[in-house]
Amino acid sequence: MNKVSEQQPVVFVIDDDPSVRGALVRLFRSVGLQAEVFGSAPELLQSELPDVPSCLVLDVRLPGQSGLDVQAELTKANIRIPIIFMTGHGDIPMTVRAMKGGAVDFLAKPFRDQDMLDAVATAIERDRERRESEKAATGLMATFQNLTPREQEVMTLVASGLMNKQVAAEMGLAEITVKIHRGHVMKKMGARSLADLVRMADLLGVRRTKS
Questions:
Q1: 97 and 166: one domain?
Q2: N or C: which end of the chain has fewer CB within 10 A?
Q3: Which domain holds residue 198?
Q4: How does DSSP assign the chain, residue by residue?
Q5: Mean pLDDT of 14-38
Q6: What is the pLDDT confidence band of residue 210, given thresholds at 50, 70 and 90?
Q7: What's this model's pTM, rounded to 2 decimal places?
Q8: Are residues 131 and 155 in the same domain?
């Protein structure tokens, strides 16, 4: 297997047919994409996957585990890699199950090279967006954790829709104190508006617990 560079996206391929694996590697490399191939699902699952935008091109019918089983196993292991299924024997229930499981596409063999390249481009872009979103959420959580416990409580209550007066009553504070805390929260979180703060609380999963 070739060493994958840190930033370049990579396409993983699982197919038990060496000729299919070879053809796909040539196709992906022809457009400058890196590819890593595996003859079976355990080979992939036991590998250390590079931390770059990626996708998985997966044959539905594999010896032992089916591609749909592999999809379920990846989900269980919290490996959220976009999957493009390919099959020579697809049927509607199989396609529905794959798409419900979050697959990007389901291509019947023989497929057009361009259809595969389009599906891979979509999958890699989806993975890139997910990674950027998770990175932003991690940064947001770090900022939230830097708030004082009281500021965190103010943010939670304000984002739940309570007015300053209601927050003050719930926390046993003067309304002016709540306003000051709210100003600190807005500044520290980098929120430009209340709507911005609500969006941040939603991303963080910060919810008011009703007493």
A1: no
A2: C
A3: 147-204
A4: -PPPPSSS-EEEEE-S-HHHHHHHHHHHHHTT-EEEEESSHHHHHTS---SSSEEEEEES--SSS-HHHHHHHHHHTT----EEEEESS--HHHHHHHHHTT-SEEEESS--HHHHHHHHHHHHHHHHHHHHHHHHHHHHHHHHHTS-HHHHHHHHHHHTT--HHHHHHHHT--HHHHHHHHHHHHHHHT-SSHHHHHHHHHHHT--PPP-
A5: 94
A6: low
A7: 0.72
A8: no
